[in-house]
Design goal:
single chain, alpha/beta, Rossmann fold, 7-stranded mixed β-sheet, 3-stranded mixed β-sheet, 12 strands, globular
């Protein structure tokens, strides 16, 4: 048997969402990999409440939606799980490396974290923001990252939001080898998920996250085979950002409309 692939994980804090842990569990089960280290961004754990409140205020109407979702009990797929209590990480080392802001929107891994990444075949970004700098090229095969969208139509955040608001029937799940351009890396694996009857943005996300484990397994296999897909500049879709103003109203209208349609469909 060949040597297992050495995989490191980039995480915001010591917890990941349940869907992320499930995704890594399936990778560990279906591929010959060793999860050897977790690079922990401790910056995300030390953000003061005042900074959080200021950020929500800057987001305007969208900040109210974010605050509402934060105050509600999280859906099962988003529940936080402490990685130190997950069996697949029992032999992994945890390295604290607070992210360093760069170029306004980017984040760099400090040098001691980059040194750890150099001992890996690949890393999987499950946090750490818009990653830039030496960390991208430190692992032998690069850094893999999810984009819950299709590069050719929807780049940028939030995951599944614009597809839901625009009434799309399908949404993409992509795993890319990231570079310093947002959602423009080589594609290691991708799929499409049916969302035509999804009655909420939360339901769209649930379906995208449920499809993620299989896509990551395919991505790691493609990475090892070197069978990556490059999307040309002309093929890349428009960049989306967090919704503002009228788009928040469109979201609320679409949410009500989707629920009414589901109620009518179930009542027949």
């Amino acid at each position: 048997m060949s040597e297992p692939l050495s995989v490191h994980v980039l995480s915001d804090g010591y917890s990941l969402a349940r869907w992320q842990v499930n995704t890594l569990r399936q990778l560990h089960r279906d591929c010959n990999v060793e999860l050897r280290a977790v690079i922990v961004n401790t910056r995300s754990e030390t953000r003061p409440p005042v900074e959080t409140l200021q950020r929500l205020t800057e987001l305007g109407a969208w900040g109210l939606i974010v605050a509402y979702r934060t105050l509600r009990a999280p859906p099962a797929y988003a529940e936080g799980i402490d990685l130190r209590e997950v069996d697949i990480f029992e032999s992994a080392s945890f390295v604290e490396a607070a992210a360093e802001p760069i170029d306004g929107s980017g984040m760099e891994v400090p040098e001691h974290g980059v040194d750890v990444l150099r001992d890996s075949d690949t890393a999987i970004r499950m946090g750490y923001g818009f990653l830039k700098g030496d960390a991208l090229t430190a692992p032998r095969l690069g850094v893999l990252s999810f984009h819950h969208g299709d590069f050719r139509a929807y780049r940028g955040p939030p995951a599944g939001f614009w597809e839901f608001v625009n009434g799309e029937t399908r949404a993409g799940v992509t795993v890319q080898v990231i570079n310093e351009r947002l959602d423009a890396g080589d594609i290691a694996a991708e799929t499409q998920v049916d969302i035509r009857d999804a009655a909420s943005w939360r339901e769209v996300q649930r379906r995208l996250f449920s499809a993620s484990p299989e896509v990551l397994v395919q991505a790691v296999q493609s990475l090892q085979d070197g069978s990556l897909t490059t999307v040309s500049e002309s093929e890349l879709g428009p960049m989306h950002t967090l919704p503002r103003g009228w788009d928040v109203g469109r979201f609320l209208h679409r949410s009500v409309e989707a629920r009414v349609r589901r109620w009518i469909r179930v009542s027949r």
